[in-house]
User: Fold these one by one.
Assistant:
Number 1:
Amino acid sequence: MTSQQNLIVRDREILSGIPVFAGTRVPVKTLFDYLEHNYPLDEFLDDFPTVDRSHALAVLELMKEKLLEQTYESAA
């Protein structure tokens, strides 16, 4: 799983278009909600077994890259 398309899906037929982990019905926002409330990644993975660790880490890495990309673009 390396491309954004393979990581996150947004389809009106799946949870009304809320971005979800590809191949699941788990909203990506749920991962961030867990982390925001100081729950460890392992607890999220235990609660949502359809998301594997590599998938969650890849989404976090993608979001980090997007954030840094925006930061560098706005600084230029």
Number 2:
Amino acid sequence: MGTTGMAIIIAYVVVMLGIGYWAMRKTKSVGDFFLGGRQIGPWMSAFAYGTTYFSAVLFIGYAGKLGWGFGLHTMWIVVGNAFIGTLAAWWILAAPDP
């Protein structure tokens, strides 16, 4: 790895540590840590859920397993799962506080 690559990695680590320190100073309770103080809104909640869910799907290999094992015609299940899962996140998980 050259000097430029090492400089990019060091800059990235410094920026991540800075963001972590800034976020640590804003976090005052467990609710702030886990729920963002309930201030992040439904879109961000849905995106957070979606990225976590789809990351797990990729690691488990659900889509690849279906496509490889049963053929490409099973991919409609993956598409439906993606859209229904995202809608469920918006409607259920990101519902406003009563």
